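Run log, item B.
One chain of 134 residues. Sequence copied directly from the ordering sheet:
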Amino acid sequence: MVSNAVSQEFARSVAGEGVTVAEWVMLRALYGGDAIAPSALARKMGMTKGAISKLADRLLEKGLIVRVGNAEDKRAHTLSVSDAGAEKVPLLARLADENDAAFFATLGRQDHERFRGLLRALIDKHGLATIPVD
């Protein structure tokens, strides 16, 4: 229930900036890094190459990422954040922080640290390594 509420509110926030949560996750994965092949990005994000391709197409259309072809292999290309995307990521990160703060502000510092520790234990126990984007 809490997870759904947090996620839904964040989805509404980023939608106001013209992106989906999945697009935000991809932008964040690309932000501050070197250009990356879609297959490597798929592994990094725990997604299929097809899903990465669809997300990339949407972000390219919005001007938030760029695709650069490989002169040696016409089928190969890399993805990176565009200037417009680089400007948008900090704004979206602020929205994510504000969303978390709004939901979890009722926890004091000690409870917040204990809660984060419990979540970390669950993540470690179940080997969770990727961020769900559905």
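Observations after the first pass:
- Residues 83-104 form the longest helix (22 residues).
- The beta strands are 65-69, 77-81.
Flagged for discussion on Thursday.
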